[in-house]
Design goal:
The chain has helices at 9-16, 73-80, 90-100, 108-123, 147-156, 173-178, 206-212, 215-222; strands at 21-23, 37-41, 47-51, 129-131, 160-163, 182-188, 225-229. The chain is built from 8 helices and 7 strands. The protein is globular and about 55 Å long. Strand 2 (37-41) and strand 3 form a beta hairpin. With 230 residues, the chain is of the alpha/beta class. Helix 3 packs antiparallel against helix 4.
Length: 230
């Protein structure tokens, strides 16, 4: 999976229910995605983005080469989260966010890996990961987007590969069968929880989930999913 910034609950469910994780940063960076931003509640109704500013770059830049612009974005994001102060887990979650930001890097992949590591530790989830661009892993020929997962799984000697259901169309199930690799999709049930407002905003950053739910309740959410085969 690509290195997302404080991703939504389903990303962490996938981490919890897989044995090894590859932070996949050797593909093209796509604007308006989840690499440098995510969504949290606004002070009133609705949601807003929190984001990390990036240096200007070419359209074809790879994720591994994307750099963070030097400005005071940490304090800005902290201020954007200040309205959560009445949520039941505000203090520990804000302490966690500050830990996540306590890294001296201008590299978006390193920042997001650091965030995932600390967030998983907070939730009590094992996060056994490697960064693809730093692995020097020899893989077979990649002819289309779905081949990356297949070839990486082959190189690892994996018996199975798990992906969110949104990416199902990328993969050729027959290729996975031929390689004796089980292709599976994890579909989490994103149920409502109390955000202490009239309208529930679904699919927000894990920050929002942690602000309103205990670690134990979050792990129950992470275990509420279905697996389908490709």
């Amino acid at each position: 999976m690509q290195p997302y910034f404080f991703p939504y609950l389903g990303y962490y469910s996938l981490i919890k229910h897989t044995d090894a994780w590859i932070i996949f940063d050797s593909v093209q960076y796509i604007r308006h995605g989840w690499i440098e931003r995510n969504r949290v509640l606004k002070p009133a109704e609705g949601w807003q983005y929190i984001s990390v500013p990036l240096e200007k770059h070419g359209r074809d830049i790879l994720i591994r080469d994307v750099k963070i612009r030097e400005e005071d974005w940490r304090d800005r994001i902290t201020r954007q989260l200040a309205h959560y102060k009445k949520s039941p887990y505000f203090e520990p979650v804000m302490a966690l966010v500050k830990q996540c930001f306590d890294i001296d890097t201008n590299d978006i992949t390193s920042l997001n890996a650091h965030i995932l590591e600390h967030t998983c530790r907070y939730l009590g989830i094992s996060f056994n990961y490697q960064v693809f661009s730093r692995m020097n892993l020899r893989i077979g020929e990649v002819n289309d987007a779905g081949d990356w997962a297949l070839q990486i799984s082959k190189a690892f000697g994996a018996s199975g590969y798990v992906n969110p259901p949104g990416g199902a169309g990328l993969f050729d199930s027959e290729k996975f069968k031929a390689a004796a690799i089980d292709l599976k999709f994890l579909n989490i049930n994103l149920n409502d929880y109390s955000q202490r407002r009239k309208t529930f905003e679904p699919g927000l950053s894990i920050i929002d989930v942690m602000m309103f739910n205990s670690k134990e309740d979050i792990n129950i959410m992470l275990d509420d999913f279905q697996i389908t085969t490709g």
